[in-house]
Amino acid sequence: MADRVHEREKATMSEATRAGAPAGPVSGGGVGGYLRNGRGRGWLLAGGALVLLVVAGVWWYLGGHESTDDAQVDGHIVPIAARVGGTVADVKVDDNQVVEAGAVLVDIDQRDYRTALDRAQADYADAQAALAAAQAGVPITSTTTASQMSSAGASVERASAGTDAATRDVEASRARLASMQARLREAQANATRASRDLERMKQLVAKDEISQQQYDAAVASADAARATVESAQASVNEATQAVSVAESRRAQSLNALTQSQAELRTANTGPEQVTVIKARAESAAARVLQAKAVLDQATLNLAYTTVTAPTAGRVSKKSVEPGQVIQPGQPLLAIVPVEDIWITANFKETQLKNMRPGQPATVSVDAYGRTYQGHVDSIAAATGARFSLLPPENATGNYVKVVQRIPVKIVLDKGQDPEHLLRPGMSVLPTVHTR
Question: Do 155 and 248 share a domain, yes or no?
Fold first, then answer.
């Protein structure tokens, strides 16, 4: 089309030349004439292209960036609390002071805890001594028990053998007694017969029917019979005493056997006694462990009287003073690690379509008017409303759709804040480059 316009203008110029008119535009000045000029149309086209490029660039820039003013500097705030109670002896730091990790912050009076540690050490030593004694008693009791069981078993065997021998002696004594009693009866019978023969001999010798010699023989025979009875009676008495002695010995043997059996039963309880001694030793070992735990706790409590900084940072919110009586768990101060700082930006959920971890970001800090470079570290797992004290309940029937905001963590590149000017809570304006 431009070629046709150009040809039409050339034809017009040719006609004008042939008619004697000067060369130039067909009509007068103005926009129409300028537009009919080829050079003007070129500039106009170039300007339009430039405007289109600018608009496209602005659209591309705005479409590839996501910003929010709901953002602030964030960081760790480490609360420092007392592990033990007591009177504060000294406070080593002031507000906003920079401290290193392990620096002493607060000293608590140690005298009570040193006394408790000394007592725990004494109890631990006593428990160890009791354990040593109990452990030494186990082998002694085991050996003694085995010896007593062996000795009691031998005593029972000896007493049983003695009882059997005494029983046999009683039986033999009774047999001898019975024999002696039989001899006594025989002697008594012989004596009775001899006495009767003597009575008859007396009548016969008085009538001179027998000789004096026969009578004297009868007298001697009667005397011998009486002597035999007396001897038999003495033997019976002796056998009776022998039976009594044998029965007494058997009774003593039975008593010895009973005693030995009782000692054996007592000795047989030795394994149970060994078990009891072992249990006492185990109990003593448990008391040692208990005393050791108390000692360790006393040692820890004494160490807790010196409150140290768990990390490097700046002291803040100090609420402890010398002479103050504090309780376990009572907050004393806080430490803010100024080197570990990040940005928490609450983007609308509609801004997260193209946002991914690792994308570059620019952070403008309101306080200093400076810009920092960083990148998206992570996107929160839920909206901020879900973590609020009273999360919204959308099942009540009064639902109103509200665009939610999701926290995005932006980490600054290293070495951009050597003076540690950034503080948690500062307002910032982050911009994430999503293209």
Answer: yes
Q: Is 343 found in the same domain as 358? A: yes
pLDDT value, residue 7: 46
Count up the domains in the chain and report the number.
Answer: 3
Cβ–Cβ under 8 Å, residues 110 and 299: no
150 membership: H or E segment, kind and range = helix 111-206
What b/e readout covers 38-63, taking b as 16+ CB neighbours within 10 angstroms? eeeeeeeeeeeeeeeeeeeeeeeeee
- Report if residue 23 sits inside a domain: no
3-class DSSP assignment, residue 200: helix
Same domain, 273 and 392: no
pTM for this prediction: 0.58
Give the separation between CA 379 and CA 377, rounded to whole angstroms: 7
- Structural domain span for residue 316: 80-109+303-333
Contact between 143 and 273 (Cβ < 8 Å): no
CA distances from 345 to 94, 336, 371, 375, 404 (A): 32, 20, 15, 12, 13
178 falls within a domain: yes
CA distances from 299 to 82, 84, 339 (A): 16, 12, 34
Tokens found for residue 285: 């070992």
Identify the DSSP state of 21: P
pLDDT digits (tens, 9 = 90+) for 332-354: 999 999 888 999 999 999 999 99
Polymer length of the chain: 435
